[in-house]
Design a protein that fits this description.
heterodimer, A: 270 residues, alpha/beta, six-stranded mixed β-sheet, 6 helices, 12 strands, 27% helix, B: 472 residues, UDP-N-acetylmuramoyl-L-alanine:D-glutamate ligase, Protein-Tyrosine Phosphatase, Chain A, 2 domains, 17 helices, globular, disordered C terminus
């Protein structure tokens, strides 16, 4: 398999790289390399020429961004890159979207001011800006349909958008701890075929390697290769996942005498 | 004011009482609660007390370097023969500033000092300026703080700008010309913030880096959002820059740091040149180019306050690093260097210094996810650990409440498994450092905020260092 070459199209690495999203790209590269696969990373930015890079990609990743950048990115993604991206995905290329990148996979995003920002429409869902942010560790039990070898996914969420799935859309999983798509629906993320979106960052893929392998398998299939992946020693990944799950289930109590400290909650993105 | 101000007397009296009680009951260092109580009684307590200083207050703000720069200024004030107080505990919200000022007030509700030199949180800076009406304000930089990753640099910078705009007309402010977003404040010629600003900057390309960090906070032009071109990068996103789109360029600093020489993480030398072209050589027992910038800021501020170059040099030559800022401690016979690394810019800066300036074969990194650290630890994937892995053959002692996330990050950065020691607890991590340290070379420990507190506690418990309040 040593001659196998995959191409990862990293969408808007400058604008959509808020929460260590680079880690997701490093995880895919690392896990491909350890199996003797060559994964080339191609940066696809706002430039008009970048659209021509899309057909050669075996899969895509888009991360989280700031509100300010999301509008510019949405215009470019839906307008300039949309057609070639949709074609690539219809041919089986996996697309993973995290946080704001997840929101852009839906039909639209309704801002607090009532403006509708169009999305790619790959997942039948839409997002409405909320007034309070959902911030914290997030633990999710993945949909068995994904066939992940370990169903618990763990990460961190920080978003004000509330994502409503249309009837019949499969969520990525059920929320065990944390907010998820809306804070009350009990659902987190969404997936359909080779398109998957989630609010889990942290970053997502390094300590949820089963999901990195889902992407790599789909990318191999798209490249016309055998999607079967060699097993790796995941003891470090597993240890990080277990530690993060433990921190999610048993967070420290807030310190008693710091009531008057930082008054400002997180804000900004998503 | 006619007659005694009873409200103020009550605020000062009760505030001081709460301060001594909370210290005695070990409810903390008494660094915010007294301020809270006093403000509840007299909301103008800070303003009134600050007005009684003979020189005035100097506020130091910006994401990184506040504590060190403020400590330098207090040392310089001492050498210049001024009586100066401050908030060395780092309690830098308005309550903390109130508590620190209250602590120095006498029973006549006056602060019998020449200067209060206070570091202030960036977001609290506008309120602090409005209340205190300081004589001077130092604006160091605007980085993204991992406490709140999505708090855009732009939001922090606009607070800094509003702090500058609230200064009284006779005050001065000192700004960093190398940080594009800080340099934009007061850029408009003829504006009041333009006339009152004193810019400092580094001016020695031999001390420059190869380029911007992998994930830079501000590579866009703060004026037009086009892409800035950097001809020189000294640290983080600070250096010499120009915007090809709108023409915004780094303004020429009035006070320049030239002939920068870095001696490992131990010390540095530079030659400060002022607006008149007069040069002063300065040695500082702190390492890294970032501390050259702090020293330059301290020089620019101290000379504006009336100190001479010779006084600055004499104070900084014997300067004692602030709490956890390159602070040396001894553990089981080995020297350990405690370095706070609380956000991507600070961690990136420390990693770059370690890669090029340090010789220790072992380095500890402790990553905690407490509230004060920021619960989200994803930022460790944005810092250039790959650069450190490439630079030298090192063993890393991984520690903290998120040790396993750190270990995974280190492995992906290129550290082989036998180069990573897993020691979640501070004591075990210190033991591992001591065991592998080279005699005579302090072993660095990069610590997030609460990890720093835990390590200090561990050192105090074993008698290796003094408690927090006494140490600073």
């Amino acid at each position: 398999m040593s001659s196998t070459r995959l191409v990862l199209g990293w969408l808007y690495p400058r604008e959509m790289n808020l929460y260590g999203d680079r880690g997701n790209v490093l995880a895919l590269t690392h896990r491909a390399e350890r199996r003797g696969l060559h994964l080339e990373v191609v940066m696809i930015g706002l430039e008009a020429e970048a659209a021509s890079l899309i057909p050669a990609c075996s899969g895509f990743f888009i991360g989280g961004g700031q509100d300010l950048d999301q509008v510019t990115v949405a215009e470019d993604l839906v307008g300039r890159k949309g057609p070639s991206l949709t074609t690539a995905i219809s041919k089986g290329a996996p697309l993973l979207g995290v946080c704001a990148g997840f929101q852009l996979l839906g039909s639209h995003y309704l801002t607090q001011e009532g403006t509708s920002i169009p999305g790619l429409g790959l997942l039948p869902m839409h997002t409405v800006a909320g007034s309070e942010r959902l911030v914290g560790n997030l633990l999710v039990e993945a949909d068995p349909g994904l066939g992940l070898r370990a169903p618990l996914l763990v990460g961190f969420e920080n978003h004000s958008g509330r994502t409503e799935l249309a009837p019949g859309v499969t969520p990525l999983g059920r929320v065990v701890r944390g907010g998820g798509n809306t804070g009350h629906s009990g659902f987190e993320g969404a997936w359909c075929g080779n398109v998957l979106g989630t609010y889990l960052h942290g970053p997502l893929l390094p300590k949820n390697p089963q999901l990195a392998d889902w992407w790599l398998g789909a990318a191999l299939a798209c490249a016309g290769e055998d999607p079967e992946l060699a097993e790796l020693d995941d003891s470090l990944e597993e240890a990080a996942r277990v530690e993060a799950i433990a921190r999610t289930m048993h967070p420290d109590r807030a310190p008693r005498l710091r009531l008057l400290g930082r008054g400002l909650g997180p804000r900004g993105a998503g | 004011m006619a007659g005694p101000d009873l409200r103020l007397s009550a605020a000062v009296g009760l505030g001081k009482l709460v301060g001594s009680a909370s210290r005695r009951l070990r409810l903390g260092g008494g660094t915010t609660l007294p301020g809270d109580v006093a403000r509840a009684i007299d909301p103008r307590v800070l303003a009134k007390l600050a007005a009684s200083l003979t020189g005035g207050t100097v506020l130091v703000t910006g994401t990184n370097g506040k504590t060190s720069t403020a400590a330098m200024l207090r040392a310089i004030a001492g050498t210049a023969g001024w009586r100066a107080g401050g908030n060395p505990s780092g309690s830098n919200l308005v309550f903390g500033l109130t508590a620190a000022t209250l602590d120095r007030a006498d029973r006549h509700c006056r602060v019998p000092l020449d200067w209060m030199i206070l570091e202030v949180d960036e977001l609290s800076a506008p309120q602090a300026v409005a209340e205190i009406q300081p004589r001077g304000l130092v604006v160091l930089n605007a980085f993204r703080d991992q406490l709140d990753r999505s708090f855009e640099v732009e939001q922090i910078a606009s607070r800094l700008e509003s702090a500058v705009n609230r200064l009284p007309p006779t005050s001065f402010w000192v700004g960093n010309a190398d940080d594009p977003r800080v340099a934009l404040i007061g850029a408009e010629p003829g504006s009041r913030s333009h006339r009152s600003r004193i810019l400092f900057g580094l001016d020695d390309p031999s001390a420059a880096r190869a380029g911007l960090p992998v994930v830079a906070d501000a590579r866009d032009c703060p004026r037009c959002r086009g892409e800035l071109e950097f001809t020189t990068v000294y640290y983080a996103h600070c250096g010499e820059y120009a915007c090809p789109n709108c023409g915004f360029t780094r303004p020429a600093p009035a006070v320049r740091a030239t002939q920068i020489q870095l001696f490992g993480l131990d010390s540095l030398q530079l030659r400060m040149v002022d607006a008149a072209g007069l040069g002063t050589s300065i040695s500082v027992p702190l390492g890294g180019v970032f501390n050259a910038a702090n020293a330059a800021a301290a020089f620019a501020t101290a000379t504006a306050m009336g100190a001479t170059g010779a006084q600055v040099n004499s104070a900084l030559a014997t300067f004692q690093p602030a709490f956890g800022r390159s602070q040396l401690a001894t553990w089981k016979g080995a020297r350990v260097r405690l370095m706070l690394a609380k956000n991507p810019a600070g961690m990136g800066e420390n990693l770059a210094s370690l890669a090029t300036l340090d010789a220790s074969p072992v380095v500890a990194i402790a990553l905690n996810d407490g509230i004060a650290d920021g619960r989200d630890i994803s930022w460790i994937w944005d810092v250039d650990l790959e650069g450190l892995a490439r630079a030298r053959r090192l063993t890393i002692v991984a520690s903290g409440t998120r040790t396993r996330d750190l270990v995974l990050r280190l492995a992906y950065a290129g550290f082989e498994p036998d180069r990573i020691r897993v020691c979640p607890e501070p004591g075990a991590a210190l033991d591992a450092l001591a065991e592998m340290a080279t005699p005579g070379v302090p072993a660095p420990a990069l610590l997030t905020y609460t990890a720093m507190l835990n390590w200090q506690r561990q050192l105090v418990r074993s008698g290796a260092s003094q408690p927090f309040r006494e140490a600073v």
